[in-house]
Design a protein that fits this description.
Blueprint: H1 2-56, H2 60-83
């Protein structure tokens, strides 16, 4: 009878240790999850800010290319007219 109580005590101690280990790993997972969530939120805010910036910033290069193409086409077609 004493042996049975001792075995029961040992099994409860092992079960307790196992439960505490699981709690510790869950706490570590929880910390990692929070870190990932915060990092994801920062990345999302940065992406939104960049998108808003790109939307409201005028594209000066597009205007420059349009002007350049117009001048090039005018000069090119003027040269052809002169040859004929």
């Amino acid at each position: 009878m004493n042996r049975e109580k001792f075995d029961e005590f040992l099994s409860s101690v092992k079960l307790n240790e196992l439960l505490h280990k699981q709690e510790e790993t869950e706490k570590k997972k929880s910390k990692v999850l929070w870190i990932c969530a915060v990092a994801g939120a920062v990345v999302a805010v940065a992406a939104i800010a960049y998108g808003v910036y790109r939307f409201f910033t005028p594209d000066y290069l597009e205007d420059f290319e349009d002007d350049f193409e117009d001048d090039f086409e005018d000069d090119f077609f003027d040269d052809e007219d002169e040859k004929e």
